[in-house]
Amino acid sequence: MPKCAKCGIYACHKGELDKLPKNCPITGNAEIFDKATAFYKEDPLQIACRSARVESAGYTKWPRIREIMEFAKSCGFKKLGLAFCVGLRKEAPEINRIFEENGFEVESVACKTGARPKADLGIRDEEQVHPGKFEAMCNPAAQAMLLNKANTDLNILLGLCVGHDTLFIKHSDAPITVCAVKDRVTGHNPLAAVYAAHYFKKRLKD
Ligand code: SF4
């Protein structure tokens, strides 16, 4: 089974096939790598090729939002779907504006769309974030379905919660990329818990 995260050699990165470690997934899986390459070549959107070009053109220059727009333009995507969390309702209009100013049509859907109570999911009042009050469920499947209905070319995730993003990805017809993930503790920067591990150590365990 692949254990690349524990490799430490990363011979694949430089094409040094004579230095592959013992448990390297490159060994014995030629069929898989051939199949993947064939997929990239046959993909009518040529996503792998276009994203590699965006990567090199903006390497260390373009922020993620610019990369998303360059990638979208390169693929000929004109209508973007912005699936956002209401926790990022200040950021969503800003991102919407940037996309529109760059010539995109934008459809956007907030996570609480539908205004259905969490009770519909079987969440008891005491399990709510704020017991005793109306709490709308996050509705990632509906977010995706609404954007499917709007025929978006590319959907962009903005701060959906863990699991809700899983469901959005499952239900979206259009390809998806991520602008930001939800992390209420680190300003939506999950790697802060890795970079500042000495501060977060105790919070990463039960
Ligand atoms: S060299 Fe092999 S094991 Fe190491 S990171 Fe690359 S693919 Fe994974």
Task: Report the structural category.
Answer: alpha/beta
Q: Strand portion, in percent? A: 5-15%
CATH architecture of one domain: 3-Layer(aba) Sandwich
**H/E series:** HHHHEHEHEHEHH
Please report the total strand number as a whole number.
Answer: 4
Low-confidence stretches: none
| Overall average pLDDT | 97
- Assembly level: single chain
Lay out the secondary structure.
Blueprint: H1 11-14, H2 30-42, H3 47-57, H4 64-75, E1 79-84, H5 91-101, E2 105-110, H6 140-149, E3 154-158, H7 164-171, E4 176-180, H8 192-195, H9 197-200
Parallel strand pairs: 1-2, 1-3, 3-4
Describe this structure in words.
- This protein has a domain at 77-206: Rossmann fold.
- Helix content is 37%, strand content 11%.
- The protein contains 9 helices and 4 strands.
- It has a 4-stranded parallel beta sheet, sandwiched between helices.
- It binds iron/sulfur cluster.
- Iron/sulfur cluster (SF4) binds next to helix 1.
